[in-house]
Design a protein that fits this description.
This protein is of the alpha/beta class. Helix content is about 50%, strand content about 15%. The protein has 16 helices and ten strands. It has a six-stranded parallel beta sheet, covered by helices on one side. The protein has a four-stranded antiparallel beta sheet with strand order 2-3-1-4, sandwiched between helices. Strand 5, helix 11 and strand 6 form a beta-alpha-beta unit. Helix 7 crosses helix 9, helix 8 runs antiparallel to helix 9 and helix 9 packs antiparallel against helix 16.
């Protein structure tokens, strides 16, 4: 959305705005995403379930954070929180991120973090969940990721009235935007775009053996795409072998190999597709150096699970998630026409949330007044 679009969008909301968000709901978003953060830092800031627990434990136990939800996807990590003192909270959060990621200088984090407050923070979240800020405009993966991350934070006990109401409305709005508009029509996921990138490199890739590493959403979406295209020579490896076996049952042309056999299998495949969480590289340059046959390696993991230095090997073509943005941009024009419709859906949701905030604020004021009269 251009600057004029944002102005019209915000003016349309302000026309029905009754209260100041900043006075009622001190919400802040600290965002590290593919538009402002190099992948070397973004991958360090990505959050596994254990990382979510670390950040929630490190922040919710202090006086500076009332509620928090952390969103972590393949191209963004965002900390959404309610705090009475945003400046101190952001500073403390960046300190915790620095300690967790071992990034040597907090100034680096400040340089690449986008910090949003109040209305800007809320509007940003609606745009994110509706796919307007995704690398692939309108993609569906973000909605599932927001739902899963919110559920984990709620289960931890890090959310209360404000973020519960906000995220329930965000999820409902994201569903509505995709149901009543064409924002997701023909939208490729990152997984799907990665398959297209392989196809551009290797025309006959459907006849080339492919090794898939992982069993999560990225691998599942890749399998759907490959199966629809008729690929019949796939193998899959995952730490939890039963998950790989469950996927192999759905796709008969897929065989399962033990996770420990990945490096031995490299000589038997032409394409390696990695989409798995790993704190260290599963495949490095030494594993491929002695193999002279041409290889295509795709890594949609974050943190990266394949050592990017393999790109220096003459017989290897390496595709990582940060290189897929150019491919993704080619699909945007087809869906840009429905952006105003999605914005109008967001505007209605913002109005509903504003009404809820107004009612809650007035109720609290009434209770406080009656309490003071009794005293």
């Amino acid at each position: 959305m251009g600057e004029f679009g944002i102005f019209v969008f915000r003016q349309g909301f302000d026309a029905i705005n009754k209260i100041n968000y900043n006075k009622v709901m001190n919400i802040t978003v600290v965002s590290m995403n593919y538009t402002n953060t190099p992948i070397e830092i973004l991958e360090k800031c990505s959050c596994s379930k254990d990382d979510l627990t670390y950040y929630l434990s490190a922040t919710m136990g202090t006086l500076f954070f009332d509620e928090m939800v952390i969103l972590s996807t393949c191209n963004r990590t965002e900390w959404v929180f309610i705090s009475a003192d945003s400046k101190k909270s952001v500073d403390l959060l960046l300190t915790k991120i620095k300690e967790k990621t071992n990034i040597s200088n907090k100034i680096i984090l400040k340089r690449h973090a986008t910090v949003l407050h109040g209305f800007d923070a809320i509007m940003h979240l609606f745009q994110v969940v509706c796919g307007l800020k995704s690398m692939v405009l309108g993609e569906n993966e973000i909605l599932t990721q927001v739902k899963d991350n919110y559920a984990m934070c709620m289960e931890f006990g890090a959310t209360s009235a404000y973020l519960n109401k906000l995220f329930q409305l965000l999820i409902a709005t994201g569903k509505e935007a995709r149901t009543v508009t064409n924002i997701s029509k023909g939208a490729h996921s990152i997984s799907s775009i990665a398959i297209e990138a392989i196809k551009d490199i290797q025309d006959d890739f459907l006849h080339r053996p492919i090794l898939l590493i992982g069993a999560g959403v990225m691998i599942q979406r890749a399998l759907v795409k490959l199966a629809a295209m008729g690929h019949q020579n796939l193998c899959i490896a995952n730490r939890t072998m039963s998950k790989a076996e469950n996927l192999a049952e759905l796709y008969p042309n897929t065989r399962v190999i033990p996770f420990a056999s990945i490096k031995r299998e490299l000589m038997n495949v032409d394409i390696i597709y990695a989409g798995i969480y790993s704190s260290s590289f599963i495949i490095n340059a030494n594993d491929l150096m002695h193999l002279t046959d041409p290889k295509i390696v795709v890594d949609v993991s974050l943190p990266r699970s394949v050592d990017p230095t393999i790109n220096q090997l003459d017989h290897v073509q390496f595709i990582s998630v940060d290189k897929l943005e150019a491919v993704a941009n080619q699909t945007i024009e087809q869906r840009e026409a429905v952006i105003p419709h999605v914005e109008s859906i967001i505007r209605v949701a913002l109005s509903d949330f504003n009404d809820w905030l107004t009612y809650r604020n007035e109720s609290i004021d009434w209770v406080n007044k009656r309490f003071s009269e009794v005293i």
